[in-house]
Specification:
heterodimer, A: alpha/beta, five-stranded mixed beta barrel, 2 helices, 7 strands, B: alpha+beta, six-stranded antiparallel sheet, four-stranded antiparallel sheet, 20 helices, 13 strands
Amino acid sequence: MPKNLKFGLLITVILGTLSWLAYQGINDTSTYFKTVTELKAMGDTAHTKRLRMQGYVVGDVERNGKDVSFTMRFDQDTIKVKYIGTGPLPDTLRPEADAVADGKLGPDGVFLASTVQAKCASKYEAKPGEYKPTAASPRS
Amino acid sequence: MENIGALSLILAFCLAIYSVLGSLYGKWASNRFLIISAERAVYAIWLLTTGASAMLVYALLTGDFRIAYVASVTNTAMPTIYKFTAWWGGQEGSLLLWVWILATYSAVVIFQNRRKFREMMPYVVAILMVTQAFFLCLITIPMSPFDVVAIGKEILTPPDGRGLNPLLQYWTMAIHPPTLYLGYVGFIVPFAFAFASMITRQPGDAWIHTTRRWTLVTWLFQSAGILLGAGWAYSVLGWGGYWAWDPVENASFLPWLTATAFLHSVMMQEKKGMMKVWNMALVAATYLLCIFGTFLTRSGVVSSVHAFAEGPIGRYFAVFLAAEIAIVVYLILARLDYLKSEQPLESVLSRESSFMFNNLILLASCFSILWGTMFPVISEAITDEKISVGVEFFNKVNIPIGLFLLFLTGVGPLIAWRRSSLDSLKKAFLWPTVGMFLTIVILLGTGVRSIYALMSFGLCVFVTWTILSEFFKGSMAIAAKSGQNLIAAMVELTHRNTRRYGGYIVHMGIVIMFIGFTGSAFNQDTFVDVNKGESFALGKYKLTLKDIQDGQNTNYAYSRATIDVKEGDQSLGSLQPEVRLYMLDSDQPQKSSVVAIRRKLNEDLYVNLEGAVDQSGKQSIRAFIFPLVSWIWIGFWVLFVGNIICLIPSKVKMQFAKTQMIGMVETNAPVTQ
C-alpha cells in the first residue's frame, strides 16, 4: 500500500472515530440555556429538553431532611426548584446568589434540578456599581 | 499613593507603545540607538510595574479601603498571608500580576540576549511589548486596580472591606494563579523568538535551542498550575472532584495541550528539519490560547459559574485576538518557502509518524475541548439558541484520546527513526504486551468490568514496562562496562542523556497520574443525617460521629465534628471535618466546608460535614471513598523531577546526534548545553 494512503487511512479512522464520539456526546448531552423568563416562554417544549436554567435565588433555601427546594427568579418570573441530585449542594447557594440549575421541567411546573451551581469562588466580585457603602463614612 | 500607582501604569503603557514602535522603526531604519533605547524601555516598564505592584500590595496589607479593589478582596479579619495573595484574588489585581510577570520575563529575556541575536531581537521586543501594551491598556483604562471608592466628589473610606472569598483562603489557591500565570505568560517568549526568527529568515533553528529551557520551564509551571487547581477543587469544594470540564479549567488546559504537542514536534524540527510550518502554528496557537484563556476567564463569554464577573473587557480581547490571529496567519503564509520541510515522512512505523500521531491526537483533544467549551457561543451564533454540552461529551471524546496517548507514550520512544521493521517491533514490545494482557486478565478475574479501567491499567503496565526496560538495558550496559552497581549505572545513564531519560521520567509521571485518574471508576459515596454517637458504614469503613464542637475566631465561626473511623474492629483514628461561617458581611455570613481527608496510597476516605440539619443537632455528613487519587499528586512530583532532569545539561554532548542522526544531512545546529 502506498505510504500516503496508509497515513490517510489511519488519520481518517482516528478522526472519524473521534468525530463520531463527539457527535454522540453532543446529541446525548445538549442542554438548552434558558433564563427563568425564557423557560416560561417555551411552553410545552420545555418538558422534553435538558435545560440549564439561570436566575438568582429568592428567599431561603429550604432543607427538609434530604429534600432541598428553593425559588429562582429572573426579571419578574419565578419558578420553584426541587433538588433531586446526589452531589452536595455548593456552599455558595444562598439567598440572592446567582444560580444555574441543570435538570428538567417536571409535569407540575416545578424544575427538577440534578445539579445546582451557584456563583463560585473566583466569581466573587462586586458588579460595577454594586458596592454599597452603607456603613461607610465620607472622608472628612 | 493610588495616583502614583495609576500613573506608573499609564507611563508603562506609553513606554510599551514606544518600545514597539522604536524597535520596529529602529530595525527598519537601521538605527541602533533606537533599538537599544526600545530595549531600555523594557527595563523601565519593569521598574514601573514593580513599583505599582508594590504599592498595591502595600495598600492590601495596610487595609487602605479607599481603594475599591482593596475593599473588594480584603478585610481586617483576614490573615496577613491572604491579604498578600489578595493581589491576585480579583480581576484587576490578577491582571496587574499578569503584566508584572510579563515585564519580568521580558526584562530577563532582553538581559540574557543583550549581545546575541541582534538581527531578530527588535522583533522579539516588539512582539513581547505588543502583548504588554495590550494588558497595560486593560489595567489603565477599563480595569484599574487603583480606582477609589467614590460617591459624588467624596472619596469614601469604608471601615472594612468585603474580604476574600473563603474558598480562596486555602494554600493551593494562594499559589495556583501565579503558577498558572508563570506558565501562560512564559509561553510568549518561545512564540516571540519563533516568529522573530521566521520574520527575519534566520538560518538554522537557533530559536529552538534558545527557548528550549523557557518552553520546558513554562510547561512545568502550566502543569503545576493545572494540578494545583485540581488539588484545590479536590480538597476544598467538598464533592471530591478534581476536574469538571468547567470553562475556566478548560481554558487552562487548552494551551497545555498545544504546548505539549509543541514540545514533541519541535524535536522533529531540531533533529530532522521537519514539521516547520506545524511548529510555527503550534507555538502561535499556544500563545493565542494563553491569551484566549485569560479572555475566557475574564469576559464571561461562556456562562460559567467559575468565570469572573462579566467585565467590559471582552471586546478588547476579541479585537486583540482577532488582529493577532490575522497577523499570525499572514506571516506563516508569507514565509511558507522558508518553512519548507527538509525531509519527507517515510513510514507509518517510524518515530516521526508516532510524533505526528501524538500531535494529531493532542490537537484533536484540544479542538474538541475548545468546541465543547465554546458550544454555547457557537450554537447561539448559528441557531440563536444557547446550547451547552455536558461533562459526558468531554469524557466521551477525551477518555479514548487519553488512552491512545498513553499507548503512544509507550510505543513512540522505542520505534526507530525513519522506519521500523515489524521484527524489531516484535522484539521491543513482546513482553510489555504480554504484561498488558496479563494485567487485564488478572483484573477481570478480580471482578473489574469497566472497559476503560481495564484498558487504562493494562496500558499503564505496558508503558511502565517499556520505560523500565529502556532504563535497564542502558544501565546494564554501563554497569557491565564500568563495574558500577545498577543504581549508580542508572544515574550515570540518565546524566549522559538527560533529555531522553528525563523525558522518560516525565512519561512515567503521566502514567502514574493515569493510575490515579482511573481510580475514579471505583468511587463510592454515602450521604447520611446522624446524631452524636450514631454510626454509618461506607465500604469497609465504619464511621461514628463522636462529637461536635462549636467555636469562633475573628475570621469565622465554626463547628467541628470528630468522627471515629474503624475498619472491622481496628480503629483508624479520627477525622475532623469542619463547617465554617465567614463573617464577610454581617447580615449574611458565608458558609464554607473544610473537608477532612484520610489520604492513603490505595484510597482516600473523604468526609464532608454539611452542617446541622435542624435544631436538634442532627448533622448532615457526606462521605466518599476515592481509590488511588493520591497517585495523581505523586505522578505530578515524578513529572516535576523528570522535567528538572531534562533541564540539567547532559554529560555526554551531542550524543543523540551521534546515535540518531545517521543517514541524515549534516546540519550544524549547535546543541546548547
